[in-house]
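2 proteins. here.
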Amino acid sequence: KIMGVSDLKIILRHILPNAIYPALILASMDMGSMVITASFMSFVGLGAPKGYADWGQMVALARNYIVGPPDDPFKFWYTIVIPGGCIVLFVLGWNLIGDALRDAFDPKLRRR
C-alpha cells in the first residue's frame, strides 16, 4: 500500500497464492466428512430417494440381514460389510489425499 500498489494487485500477488493451498487441503479433508454425512442421512431415510444407488441406503437395507437365520447367523455378512467397507475406504482415500496435499503445499515443510 505504501508503494502505491492497488488492492487487486496485492490480493492477486500475495494473498491468493498463500490462501489457495489451505483451501484445497481443507476441501479434500472435508470430502470424507461429507460422504459420511450423506451416507448417514440416507441411512436414516433423509437422503436420496429410494431406488438410487447410495451406500447409506445399502447399509440401511442390509440391517435386516445382519443376523441371518438361526442355523447360520452370518449367512448374509457381506450385505453390510461391503458397503460399510466401501465407505471406510473412500473416506480414508480422501483423508490420505488431504494429508499428501498438506505435506506437499505446507510452506514450513517446503523449506526443509
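next one coming up
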Amino acid sequence: MSPPAGNSTGSGLTSLLPLLLIIVVFYFFFIRPQMKKTKEERKFRENLKKGDKVITIGGIHGKVIEMAETTIIIEVEGQNRLRIEKSAVALGSISGQPLDKK
C-alpha cells in the first residue's frame, strides 16, 4: 500500500501552532506589560518639575530643586544637594500627591 496522497502542508502548520502559541503568550504576559511600564516611567520622568518629592533607585528621598535636560538636582535632608540622572528616579509624588507604592 502506498501512503495516502493528502495535503502534507497541514501537518507542518499544526506542528508550528504550539510554537506560535508560546510566542503570543510571551508577548501578552511579558513583553507588552514591560513596554507599558517603561512608557509610564518615561512619561512620569518627563512630567517632573521643581518641588516634586522623589525617591531614587538607590533609595534616596529628596525634593527636586533644579532640572536640566538629562539631570536633576534634588535636596535631601540637611540642605544637601545631589545631582542625579533623571533615569535614576524610581518613584515620586507630583504636585504634593502621595507616593505610589504598588
